[in-house]
Write a structure and sequence with these properties.
Elements (H helix, E strand, L loop, with lengths): L2 H14 L3 E5 L6 H8 L7 E8 L4 E7 L3 E2 L1 H8 L4 E3 L2 H8 L10 H4 L2 E5 L8 E7 L2 E5 L1 H8 L2 E3 L2 E2 L1
Parallel strand pairs: 3-6, 6-9
Antiparallel strand pairs: 1-8, 2-3, 2-5, 4-10, 7-8
């Protein structure tokens, strides 16, 4: 786990002037575990997934906790042959975080970031920030202002 990356993300958020809350909790590794520990609906969570394109470029795709990424639809949107999940080693190399603890901050990690449009439908969202035991709650529109992702439609149930 990366205390360094968690602190980096929280410090970055603090510098933006947007409101957010840091939540400390028991370790979570899946959206379903986070739903139970945070006591919030599954769709409030944001999953941040490092992907690799057929051109070997890495990117960060973010979807609501109750959704999955439609890799074919995302590949079509990106105009690449295909998109696949990065390996655990690649996730760590690209973000400094373990799978399941990556926050939706591709801009901090130097990764182009994509948000599925459904993330913006909520009053607030929650997501891990570099550790399996630390999450942040904030307004999704503020999150988008901070991250500056491309917004697209690439989630599936």
């Amino acid at each position: 786990m990366s205390e360094k990356e968690s602190k980096r993300i929280v410090d970055f958020l603090s510098s933006t002037g947007f409101d957010f809350n840091v939540l400390e909790h028991a370790p979570v590794y899946t959206s379903e575990e986070a739903e139970k520990v945070r006591n919030q609906p599954l769709d409030i969570g944001v999953k941040s997934i490092v992907l690799r394109t057929s051109e070997n470029a890495f990117l960060l795709a973010c979807v609501s906790g109750d959704k999955r990424i439609d890799l074919a639809r995302l590949a079509a949107f990106l105009e690449v042959k295909n998109v696949s999940l990065a390996s655990p080693k690649e996730v760590l190399e690209q973000t400094g975080c373990e799978i399941g603890s990556v926050g939706p901050f591709g801009n901090i990690f130097g990764l182009k970031t994509f948000f599925d449009k459904r993330i913006l439908e909520h009053k607030f969202v929650e997501f891990n920030v570099g550790l399996h035991t630390v999450s942040v709650r904030m307004n999704p529109r503020d999150l988008a202002r901070v991250v500056k992702p491309e917004i697209a439609d690439f989630a599936k149930a």
